[in-house]
């Protein structure tokens, strides 16, 4: 159970408590009372994790080895096929006037399916570029062919009023890929300029979606599945495409249902029920609840406190699982004072039928630091949970 | 704020408390009450750090990668130029009679400037040896040229009544460097034998300074600066040349003033004021206060306790910093019972405007171990402090 961005810092509006400290969380407190607590540096102390590197680590993978950029996980998250060696990039459909980006989101265009179709499947020598739509103005491009590299810069200037940038190689091995990205952008923008949807948008006074802005290139690594590593069948319940992508890269079944949005409006009880039913057919279920992170990015400590209380209520059914290892933690801290991810460690509780019971009775960043699990790294979590279920092979004799 | 050698062990003379436990430290206690506490294994559990490896680690560098010996940091500490690939050695000016070292410090000679001048700039093939004076009987030699190595033994026998040793290579790659050191010692000792200063010393009945004893060879590594690594401007306030050298290697501005001696007689208030004024023009200031270490080496628990109380008083101005991340810790433990560095972890406190507040109210080795920071390694400290100031880039998206 990953409460996204749950960790926080002392907040003046909460009398120098964290939102989790300030929240009333009887269910989490019951869970920790029955088990043991700790804190976790998901990457290493002081390093703010991204959601992608964090989930890789929480699934036992070394992000330094398997992560080269967000692209491949976004691609997997929206259901694209990505093979080892493919390079994937996120892209925005944006508005360009005389070579200058005037709107990075093309007037927050709602559906780019037709536009993606128009620029999908282009070939440049031995490389094919596939494009599929993400949410709203976003898409993902996957480059497939020999000798590709993620060692390239973004085309997206990440700001309006700027010319779109030429893709450049960072190291020599990115040269071919950078050239292909530049050719793709040129040809895609020509196709978009003439696209009927843009003609309609012109007539109705809407901003043109006439420029693609690729960013976040990553090369897909050969990632061994959890099945291969631990011989377990694993599922993920999440509405966030980036999280879904990481879980798919680990070979997990991604389960989702209507009403599970990844937003503040998500149907929490339905999500919990989906996780519980997934437990019947899987050895491991990862559930991500996004909204503590959203309140953190918004700098809203009271919203975050109330959000945590809503999560706590929804967790009640987990109290009845008496043959299951249950862990509650976060992928990173998103302090309301920072309005971004920070390197502060996250709290962790684990209960299991025969797990050690420490004397921690309250689930928060301060109390958990005194628990029997002490301090671990994100990469340690999965082996620790699987060992609680006696599913880790002995090293040695 | 590095209290050098602060960590200690249970001392019978203090009713089995450590000097820090026994000391009255109201200011450190206030600081820890406003923030969080932990303990730190500066290298790793049970490994006694040197002051050089410790400060490297506290500045975020892996000493296993960047440290090959004390020489280069001593050289930088006394203001010598040391380039990557140079090999530096500390040396004593000593008294030799019939090939036997009878005084390793040549009667504690006060000023070796003239002697260094006499042996400075010697050339041996493609290698130049520069020599500059350190404190009292000490100097530093820097070898510059191709294919040098620190894989050599000391000439210094580290005891009197012994013949001075031939420098030997430890691994094959040290062969050239060992030969040059031996040639340098021979030629330097000939120059010293005829030196006017030694003639004067002979007449006045003082011991001859007629033999150099090089030791502690280290090769200068390519060390990225804190500016390159974290984009910060950093300063150090320390009277210890070894600490100054490590800080210079990290690209820090070393600031010092009259009366700041690095000894027990140092002007603490002046040092604190220099650190505070340095904070106005730097992102990070490291202050080293040496004397807990001195009392530890002397095996003086009551002196150490009182020394800690003096430091605590001097720290009062830090209580008024409300927009600053303040950390108090040590580079290593120097237990009075050991009279040398030990591998015991050191206490750590960190306060910052929005930092988590745990329930630790007393700054000592035992209470800090219960704090919210838990246990970290020395290398984790700088990222952790910079993250408190929101200056660490996210890893991932």
Overview of the structural elements:
2 copies of one chain form a homodimer. With 397 residues, chain A is an alpha/beta fold. The first copy, chain A, folds into 2 domains: 2-67 and 224-388, Alkaline Phosphatase, subunit A, CATH 3.40.720.10; 74-219, no CATH class. Helix content of chain A is 31%, strand content 19%. The first copy, chain A, has 14 helices and 15 strands. Chain A has helices at residues 19-22, 26-33, 51-58, 63-66, 71-77, 113-119, 175-193, 196-203, 226-230, 241-249, 268-279, 291-298, 301-314, 378-388; strands at 2-3, 36-41, 87-97, 100-103, 122-124, 127-133, 138-144, 162-163, 211-219, 234-237, 253-255, 284-289, 326-328, 346-351, 374-377. In chain A, strands 3, 4, 5, 6, 7, 8 and 9 form a 7-stranded antiparallel beta sheet that branches. In chain A, a hairpin with a 4-residue loop joins strand 6 (127-133) and strand 7. In chain A, helix 3 (51-58) runs parallel beside helix 10, helix 5 crosses helix 10 and helix 12 (291-298) packs antiparallel against helix 13. The model of chain A has no long low-confidence stretch (mean pLDDT 96). The A-B interface holds A 9-12, 16, 18, 39, 43-54, 63, 67, 70, 216, 242, 335, 337-338, 340-345, 365-366, 369-370, 374-375 and B 36, 353-359, 370-376, 380, 382-387, 390, 392-397.
């Amino acid at each position: 159970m990953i409460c996204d961005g749950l960790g926080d810092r002392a907040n003046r509006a909460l009398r120098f408590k964290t939102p989790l400290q300030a929240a009333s969380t009887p269910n989490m407190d019951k869970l920790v009372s029955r088990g043991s607590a700790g804190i976790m540096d998901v990457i290493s102390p002081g390093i703010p994790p991204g959601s992608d590197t964090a989930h890789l680590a929480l699934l036992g993978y070394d992000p330094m080895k398997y992560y080269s950029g967000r692209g491949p996980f976004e691609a997997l998250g929206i259901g694209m096929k990505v093979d080892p060696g493919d390079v994937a990039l996120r892209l925005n459909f944006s508005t360009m006037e005389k070579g200058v980006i005037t709107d990075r989101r093309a007037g927050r265009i709602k559906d780019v399916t037709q536009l993606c179709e128009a620029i999908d499947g282009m070939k440049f020598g031995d490389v094919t570029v596939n494009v599929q739509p993400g949410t709203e103005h976003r898409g993902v491009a996957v480059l497939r062919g020999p000798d590709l590299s993620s060692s390239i810069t973004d085309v997206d200037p990440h700001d309006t009023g700027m010319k779109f940038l030429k893709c450049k190689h960072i190291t020599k091995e990115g040269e071919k890929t950078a050239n292909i990205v530049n050719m793709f952008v040129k040809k895609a923008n020509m196709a978009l300029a003439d696209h009927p949807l843009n003609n309609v948008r012109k007539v109705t006074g809407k901003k043109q979606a006439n420029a693609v802005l690729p960013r976040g290139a990553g090369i897909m690594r050969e990632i061994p599945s959890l099945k291969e590593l631990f011989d377990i069948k694993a599922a993920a319940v999440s509405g966030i495409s980036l999280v879904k992508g990481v879980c798919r890269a680990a070979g997990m079944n991604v389960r989702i249902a209507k009403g599970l949005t990844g937003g503040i409006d998500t149907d929490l009880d339905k999500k919990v029920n989906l996780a519980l039913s997934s437990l019947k057919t899987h050895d491991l279920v990862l559930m991500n609840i996004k909204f503590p992170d959203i309140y953190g990015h918004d700098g809203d400590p009271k919203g975050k406190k109330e959000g945590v209380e809503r999560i706590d209520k929804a967790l009640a059914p987990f109290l009845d699982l008496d043959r299951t290892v249950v862990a509650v933690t976060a992928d990173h801290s998103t302090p309301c004072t920072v309005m971004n991810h920070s390197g502060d460690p996250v709290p962790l509780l684990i209960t299991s039928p025969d797990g050690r019971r420490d004397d921690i009775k309250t689930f928060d960043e301060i109390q958990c630091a005194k628990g029997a699990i002490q301090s671990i790294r994100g990469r340690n979590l999965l082996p620790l949970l699987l060992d609680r279920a006696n599913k880790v092979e002995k090293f040695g004799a």
